[in-house]
Amino acid sequence: MITIRQERPVDAIAREALLDVAYGSERHAKPSAKLRKGRLPAAALVAVERGRIVGTLRCWPVEAGHGRPALLLGPLAVHPAAQKRGIGSALMRRAIADAGRAGHKAILLVGDASFYGRFGFTAEKTAALTMRGRPDPGRLLGCELVAGALDGADGAIRATGERESMRILGHRPLASRARLVPRAA
Ligand SMILES: CC(C)(COP(=O)(O)OP(=O)(O)OC[C@H]1O[C@@H](n2cnc3c(N)ncnc32)[C@H](O)[C@@H]1OP(=O)(O)O)[C@@H](O)C(=O)NCCC(=O)NCCS
Questions:
Q1: How far is the CA of 52 from the centre of ligand 1 (A)?
Q2: Residue 55: closest CA among 30, 71, 74
Q3: The pTM is what?
Q4: Does the beta carbon of 89 sit less than 6 angstroms from any atom of ligand 1?
Q5: Per-residue DSSP letters for 70-125?
Q6: Domain 2-177 CATH (choose: 3.40.50.720, 3.40.630.30, 3.40.50.880, 1.20.120.610)
Q7: I need a labelling partner for 145 at 20 to 30 A (CA). Which of 53, 102, 118, 126 fits?
Q8: Does the CB atom of residue 151 touch ligand 1 within 6 A?
Q9: Helix H or strand E encompassing 141
Q10: Number of Cβ atoms within 10 Å of the Cβ of 13
Q11: Atom number, ligand 1, closest to the C-alpha of residue 82
């Protein structure tokens, strides 16, 4: 049986190992990885089967140009031995539902439209958005949780989440107190 639950601190090593298997070590050079670096996620889910983490998905708070709040979804990965059993889709559906319940209006990601299109992601409203590291054209996708949330979206996508270094300074990070609670629009 597969369980999808919130990631716990103790899951971090298994999650990173899974991401290495799924994407290779070059994953750290991807545009969205650069944007996420040093930030705390707004949401972190894992798929667990017989006590082992077989899937991971995280979302990050961003500004989708000119003060427009959104989430950046990714990375999503399922262990190669567990793929094509619906785990990636289950993680996507749960993340999108959680984001909607928390009041987020739009989700962005960098990925294949042939996979993410089935969850409502398209490049229709992302052409005028830019991202550090310049993802390949057509791979920056958006999904509106509220109709019109990405109308006229333009400008740079910037990370807005709490910085990881705040942990070292002894602050209790916002993301651990209230996962998926959006910033005021
Ligand atoms: C993408 C990924 C998360 C899907 O997880 P999963 O648990 O196998 O997904 P599901 O079982 O829910 O869905 C499988 C379907 O997605 C399709 N799919 C998987 N990767 C795809 C891709 N990059 N493009 C298009 N379709 C893809 C499969 O062909 C399958 O199609 P089907 O339902 O018609 O048979 C997983 O394959 C993975 O971790 N891949 C490695 C990371 C990666 O390459 N990510 C790139 C995605 S942009």
A1: 20
A2: 74
A3: 0.90
A4: yes
A5: EEEEEEEEE-GGGTTSSHHHHHHHHHHHHHHHTT--EEEEES-HHHHGGGT-BSTT
A6: 3.40.630.30
A7: 53
A8: no
A9: strand 140-144
A10: 10
A11: 7
Assess whether the C-beta atom of 88 lies below 6 angstroms from ligand 1: yes
Q: Is 122 in the pocket of ligand 1 (CB under 6 A)?
A: no
Q: Is 77 in the pocket of ligand 1 (CB under 6 A)?
A: yes
Rounded distance from Cα 36 to ligand 1 centre (Å): 22
Q: Going by CA atoms, what residue is nearest to atom 33 of ligand 1?
A: 84
pLDDT digits (tens), the chain, 185 positions: 999 999 999 999 999 999 999 999 889 888 888 889 999 999 999 999 999 999 999 999 999 998 999 999 999 999 999 999 999 999 999 999 999 999 999 999 999 999 999 999 999 999 999 998 878 879 999 999 999 999 999 999 999 999 987 655 554 444 444 444 444 43
Ligand 1: does its nearest atom lie under 6 Å from the Cβ of 92? no
